[in-house]
Design brief:
By secondary structure, the protein is mainly beta. The protein has helices spanning 2-15, 40-47, 87-91, 110-115, 182-185, 360-372; strands at residues 49-66, 73-86, 96-107, 136-147, 152-159, 197-207, 210-219, 242-251, 254-255, 261-272, 276-277, 285-286, 289-299, 310-320, 327-338, 348-358, 391-404, 407-417, 426-438.
């Protein structure tokens, strides 16, 4: 509970500091909590060195429903340390940047502790920053350079796949509503933040509104080990099983239907050359697997000619290989309105819906195993019973309180229908609070 009290005290301190001056710690225009280092930080940025230090905390408590309705509060945390280098300013390398970033995650997941049946594999999570181990990780170490007036960009190094493909907005605490969807449904071959892997990609802007990207990334299960901090800094390729090759077409129009407001539309697909087990037939192995996706992000309205204020929407959908993937498809739609109040122009209100559909072949396999063990219906007490999974729907309503560029608070309410896709588990209501501080 100490995490909850710390967050509460921080909230009270923020709300009680409405009249802090620009030079004070809690001022509303303070860019970083630790300040500008007497002007040295801005000077370093002008020279090509930009530093990032941030802490994010996501607390969640179960209000009703779930597999275990005993109330508890769980908190997940993430520390991020990074530097971006403008190599044009530093070394005279035109259109070239580099980055290095490390992350540390800790804490617990309410979904694992209370919401889902512990015998089921998880689909969603009430705290998106939970996962991939409570260890330090090298999350980014890459170089990117541009050619032909920067219409061709080449990137190589250690990175997450959704840094450049199947990326989307993250305006929510719920995992299924945050960012790209592939890493949540095919996590054995598609690695998102905070995991990095060796990879490279090329993006070609062949017209003002059109870009084509292609990448090659290793499939290496060593990258997702979580036993020690050394696992988070694995740089060898001794256990590479194949490669994941994504291709994505991006269109960035200003459509008349939305009064010329900016949009971004993506369609993509991938093929993995790593061997993949069949989800239904025991001992059957496939030579690879595939997925397809569409992403759309569009500003729907604009308030008072301010491009940062108005109603925004994102739509995401993924279809996975039915032979090898337990999650057959995902669908997500989200809305957020930024600057609803004139005196809070940087705050936003968000509402999102995300649905995960379990592959019927995987479900048939679960039924077959239960029948072979003598179960013909859900047994809440049997340790070797495998809950049959179907769909899971996640809904979140939140308010993002942007005190300053340095501090954000996001209280939220979440609703989970059929946690982990198990219809026998009661629908759950969850209250959450995200806090982010930039130092």
């Amino acid at each position: 509970m100490q995490h909850f009290f710390k967050l509460s005290l921080l909230s009270v301190a923020l709300l009680g500091s409405q009249f802090a001056s620009a030079n004070e710690f809690w001022s509303q225009d303070r860019q970083w909590l630790l300040g500008d280092w007497n002007g040295e930080r801005k000077q370093l940025e002008d020279q090509g060195y930009k530093f990032t230090t941030s802490i994010m905390s996501q607390a969640a408590t179960n209000l009703a429903g779930g597999y275990n309705d005993d109330n508890t509060l769980e908190n997940a945390g993430q520390l991020t340390l990074g530097t971006t280098f403008d190599l044009n300013k530093i070394a005279g390398w035109e259109n070239t940047t580099a980055a290095i970033m490390m992350t540390k995650r800790d804490g617990n997941s309410l979904t694992l502790e209370r919401i889902k049946d512990p015998r089921s594999s998880a689909l969603g999570n009430t705290q998106e920053i939970y996962g991939r181990g409570k260890i330090w990780r090298l999350t980014q170490a890459w170089v990117k350079t541009g050619f032909a007036d920067n219409t061709v960009q080449f990137k190589i190094g250690r990175m997450g796949m959704s840094d450049d493909f199947n990326s989307s907005q993250c305006e929510f605490q719920n995992l299924l509503l945050c960012g790209g969807q592939l890493g949540k449904s095919i996590g054995s071959i598609w690695y998102n933040w905070p995991v990095s892997l060796w990879g490279t990609n090329v993006k070609y802007q062949f017209a003002p509104e059109w870009t084509l990207g292609v990448g090659v990334y290793e499939v290496n299960p060593d990258n997702v080990k979580t036993q020690s901090d050394s696992d988070g800094f694995n740089l060898d390729m001794n256990n590479v099983k194949g490669a994941t090759i994504p291709v994505e077409l991006i269109w960035k129009p200003k459509l008349a239907a939305f009064d010329g407001l900016q949009g971004e539309y993506k369609i993509g697909g991938l093929y993995s050359t790593a061997e993949a087990n069949d989800v239904k037939t025991v001992d059957k192995v496939h030579d690879g697997k595939y997925s397809f996706w569409v992403n759309a992000q569009q500003q729907l309205t604009q308030y008072d000619n301010d491009p940062k204020r108005g109603l925004f929407m994102s739509v995401n959908a993924v279809v996975n290989d039915k032979a090898t993937t337990a999650v057959q498809s995902t669908q997500q739609i989200a809305f957020w309105y930024k600057g609803l109040l004139d005196y809070r122009p940087n705050d936003s209100v968000g509402l999102g819906f995300a649905n995960y559909v379990v592959n019927e072949r995987a479900r048939d396999r679960q039924i077959e195993i239960n029948q072979s063990n003598g179960y013909d219906q859900y047994d809440a007490l049997a340790g070797n019973y495998i809950p049959v999974q179907r769909d899971e729907l996640n809904v979140e309503l939140n308010y993002s309180y942007q005190w300053s560029p340095a501090i954000m608070l996001r209280p939220n309410i979440q609703y989970i229908h059929q946690p982990a896709g198990v219809k026998e588990v009661d629908d759950a209501w969850v209250a959450g609070l995200t806090m982010r501080a930039n130092f």
